[in-house]
Write a structure and sequence with these properties.
Layout: H1 7-21, H2 25-38, H3 43-55, H4 59-72, H5 77-89, H6 93-106, H7 111-123, H8 127-140, H9 145-157, H10 161-173, H11 185-202, H12 205-215, H13 222-236, H14 239-252, H15 257-266, H16 278-294, H17 299-303, H18 305-308, H19 311-328, H20 333-337, H21 346-364, H22 377-392, H23 396-409, H24 414-427, H25 430-442, H26 448-460, H27 464-471, H28 480-486, H29 490-503, H30 506-526, H31 530-537, H32 540-551, H33 557-575, H34 581-589, H35 593-622, H36 652-666, H37 671-683, H38 687-701, H39 705-719, H40 727-739, H41 751-761, H42 766-779, H43 784-792, E1 798-800, E2 807-809, H44 813-825, H45 830-843
Antiparallel strand pairs: 1-2
Length: 844
């Protein structure tokens, strides 16, 4: 490194390297210029100068210098290494790996290059290459702990956990008997726990248990040790020992639900589906009663029995659980109880209980069977609970009556207004829900949660401008909208994107959806810094868990929503292309001269204003520089705030396909993924891919209304195609002819008969009737009125619980909105759409 230089310049070259490592970029630049003054074509110096400039945000100069340096010294590992570092800084990892491999051809045993290469290999999940590189590092420096650990982790990630165990045991064989010293006890304990988890993963449970007993004194994290021990003995069937461990864990934390599940498994009283025999319920009840005597303060011990108890025992337990929380005034009580509504009969029992409590407090001021007077707030919290119950059951008028009564009783409790806003939202009155949420927010301006809920309600009501002004109240000063992006505020971006999409503003919708996609790319990149950190700090279990999480990152709900929204935007853009500049010019030319002049003046003023604001922001954000020469607080100015450039794509379906592939690989079990695949591929005339999507839908849920739509639309489209002429068209046709008899819905039936059969099977479901009606209109356009009648003849079935429960409508607000949209957009019948809207409002 710098060896071809005279001693003085060679020392200056070392100064460049040291300045780069210590981030003293101006000093390094000065030393580089001193060398280049005498040796202007010295390749390694040019490369290091380029690397320094790259850290000072002068990328174009940096690439030019590094390429020039490499051209002057192709056989220098330094030049190739620097070129790789440059690509790495720009996240061009594959190119960086190529550069590192070229550097290693020149200097195969360079530790730094090998280490950098291994980081990129694990980042890109080149696990075979990662194993080879870590093995080479270990052979070069076998006395370095990190190399042993890195080699073991590499094998584990490469699905060879047993080999990883052997490596860790070989490493332990190199240690002294009194190892570790006091300052390394935690790191060594983490390594031992990682090794035990590997043995458990391999199924070597006896060996893992033996290792735990042997190394217990050397493991510092006693909680993790006990949890691992409990897991292993449970798998080994040592239930008595497992019970003792789980009871000791409960003594440490009596509100950890996992410990209760473990204890139940040890006692043979656990069911994944939550279904128990009467004998098991009695034993479970006795278990939790004994635990309640020991841990009277634990809320989990009081709450868990509500999941398995039934009938009168359930009512009694729920009564005992609810009373103290109503007296105390716990706003989250209903959220705690809401999972019980999924279990048969429990919603009816809860309503009877809630109404009985309400009646008793109103009439006597006490709970039933008690002579102790309750504080005045108890009735308010009881009404609060009852209103949420009615909201959950879809009885919005009763819910609103109860919450209004609670507000009249105590008008200063903010939670009441929040819940009233939620009830109005569920009832379909989105503007009123937003107004209530804003009123709740104004009662406590320092509460971030209330601000967040208010913003969400405003976005649901398509009040985007007002929502943004409200959201930025809790951001830092400066470019406030960018702060929301910097904070990765994805719920806001998704809600904004959905609102803009509903309003037909595809540019801004795409901008918000793509911002969410950018956050997930950043999360993927953020793991890079942990590859070396976690090996150094020995947080191996957390590290492997993080890598597995990263591998499933794009299956997260927020990414799924963003990708779906993006694809829908591109589909709409394909169906209704945005106007080009030429078309806009033609439209303007048709205007009268006076209006044309005014329009152009407005456009020029808007462009000038935007340009001036951008320049001012640029000056503000790039004015400061650090001592090292690197700009501070620099943020690129958004030159396309309304997303207009995002609409200027040549092939929207090609862009949609990029995100569709991500959904197919990460959300293959989602109906929405395959519905979008069908929509995109039908538009691209990719018949077999569209058919593949239909088959996936039938496999996931053949009774889904959207699945039925796709099936009928597909074969209707195929039937309208011209006779195949080319060999490929004939091949596609033969595949469809061979596959159709295997589809049970179409076997021996025409499409009209299949649609009628679907309707008869699901005649009591609104959404299924709507799907059948739409397909009737597609197959027989002259029967439009019959199709509309199918929808209008739908009846809102009443689900009866008991006398106290009252009627509960089956229809949901979202379903009624979807049917209204169908009547307007597909049938294009505004009269029936208006009638449906009025009827739906009365029905729900």
């Amino acid at each position: 490194m710098g060896s071809s230089l005279p001693p003085k310049e060679a020392n200056l070259f070392k100064v460049i390297v040291k300045s780069y490592e210590t981030k003293q970029y101006k000093k390094g630049l000065k030393a580089a210029d001193a060398i280049l003054k005498k040796f202007p074509e010295h390749g390694e110096t040019l490369s290091m100068k380029g690397l320094t400039l790259n850290c000072m945000d002068r990328k174009s100069e940096a690439y030019e210098l590094v390429r020039r340096g490499l051209k002057n010294d192709l056989k220098s590992h330094v030049c190739w290494h620097v070129y790789g570092l440059l690509y790495r800084s720009d996240r061009e990892y594959r190119e960086a790996i190529k550069c590192y491999r070229n550097a290693l051809k020149i200097d195969p045993d360079n530790i730094e290059i090998l280490r950098d290469l291994s980081l990129l290999q694990v980042q890109m999940r080149d696990l075979t290459g990662f194993v080879e590189t870590r093995q080479q590092l270990l052979s070069l420096k076998p006395n370095h702990r990190m190399n042993w650990i890195g080699f073991a982790v590499a094998h584990h990630l490469n699905s060879n956990a047993l080999k990883a165990v052997d490596i860790l045991e070989a490493y332990e064989g190199t240690l002294e008997d009194d190892y570790p010293p006091e300052n390394e006890r935690y790191e060594h304990g983490e390594m031992l726990l990682y090794k035990i988890s590997l043995l458990e993963e391999c199924g070597l449970l006896d060996r893992a248990l033996e290792e735990m007993h042997r190394k217990e004194a050397k493991i510092v994290d006693k909680l993790a040790f006990k949890e691992q021990m409990a897991s292993i003995v449970l798998k080994l069937g040592l239930f008595e020992e497992g019970e003792k461990i789980y009871r000791s864990l409960l003594f440490m934390n009596s509100d950890n639900y996992r410990y209760f599940i473990g204890l139940q498994k040890c006692l043979g009283l656990y069911s994944e589906k939550g279904v128990y025999t009467s004998d098991e319920i009695e034993r479970l009840d006795a278990l939790y009663k004994s635990l309640r005597e020991q841990y009277s303060w634990s809320s989990a011990i009081k709450r868990i029995p509500l999941d398995f108890l039934e009938g009168d025992a359930f009512r009694e337990a729920a009564d005992n659980y609810v009373r103290p929380l109503l007296t105390k005034g716990v706003p989250s009580l209903f959220s705690d109880l809401s999972p019980l509504y999924e279990r048969n009969g429990k919603a009816a029992i809860l309503e009877q209980l809630f109404l009985h409590l309400e009646h008793s407090i109103k009439s006597t001021g006490c709970f039933p069977g008690s002579s102790k007077k309750e504080p005045p707030s108890t009735i308010m919290w009881t009404l609060f609970l009852v209103s949420q119950h009615y909201d959950r059951r879809g009885q919005y008028s009763l819910a609103l009556a109860k919450i209004d009564e609670a507000i009249e009783h105590t008008p200063t409790v903010i939670d009441l207004y929040s819940i009233k806003g939620r009830i109005l939202e569920n009832a379909g009155d989105l503007p009123a829900a937003a107004a209530l949420a804003d009123e709740a927010r104004s009662m406590d301006l320092a509460d971030r949660y209330l601000n967040t809920e208010c913003v969400m309600r405003m976005l649901q009501a398509d009040q985007v401008g007002l929502a943004e002004k409200t959201a930025v109240l809790f951001t830092k000063d400066g470019d406030q909208h960018n702060n929301l992006h910097d904070m990765q505020c994805m719920w806001y971006e998704l809600a904004s994107g959905e609102s803009y999409f509903r309003q037909g503003d595809l540019g801004r919708a795409l901008k918000n959806y793509l911002a969410v996609e950018k956050h997930y790319s950043d999360m993927t990149e953020d793991q890079f810094d942990f590859h070396s950190y976690c090996l150094r700090k020995m947080t191996l279990r957390a590290y492997v868990s993080m890598l597995k999480f990263q591998d499933q990152l794009h299956s997260h709900e927020y990414f799924h929503k963003a990708a779906v929204g993006t694809i829908r935007c591109y589909i709409k853009l394909h169906d209704f292309p945005s106007k080009s500049a030429t078309e806009e010019g033609d439209e303007m030319s048709q205007l009268p001269p006076s209006q044309r002049k005014k329009m152009r003046q407005k456009q020029k003023k808007a462009e000038a204003r935007a340009k001036k604001e951008a320049e001012e922001r640029n000056e503000d954000t790039t004015s400061g520089t650090s001592k090292s020469g690197k700009r501070q607080n620099s943020r690129p100015v958004d030159l396309d705030p309304h997303g207009k450039k995002l609409l200027q794509v040549e092939d929207p379906l090609l862009e949609a396909t990029k995100y569709l592939k991500l959904l197919q690989s990460n959300s293959a079990n989602s109906l929405e993924t395959h519905i979008l695949s069908f929509e995109v591929n039908m538009r691209k005339q990719k018949i077999l891919l569209a058919f593949q999507a239909v088959k996936h839908l039938l496999k996931l849920n053949e009774n889904d209304p959207d699945c039925h739509r796709c099936l009928i639309k597909f074969f209707h489209k195929v039937s309208s195609l011209t006779s195949p002429e080319t060999d490929s068209e004939k091949l596609v046709w033969n595949v469809l002819v061979a596959e159709r008899p295997h589809i049970s819905q179409l076997s021996g039936k025409s499409l009209i008969e299949a649609n009628q059969s679907f309707l008869e099977k699901h005649k009591d479901s609104l959404m299924h009737r709507a799907a059948a009606a739409e397909m009737l209109y597609v197959l027989e356009p002259d029967k439009k009125l019959d199709a509309i009648m199918l929808i209008e003849d739908s009846k809102n079935t009443i689900a009866m619980g008991n006398d106290a429960l009252g009627p509960v409508n089956i229809w949901k607000r979202q379903d009624c909105i979807a049917v209204h949209k169908l009547l307007e957009d597909v049938f294009k019948d505004h009269g029936s759409a208006s009638r449906w809207r009025a009827w739906a409002l009365r029905s729900i």
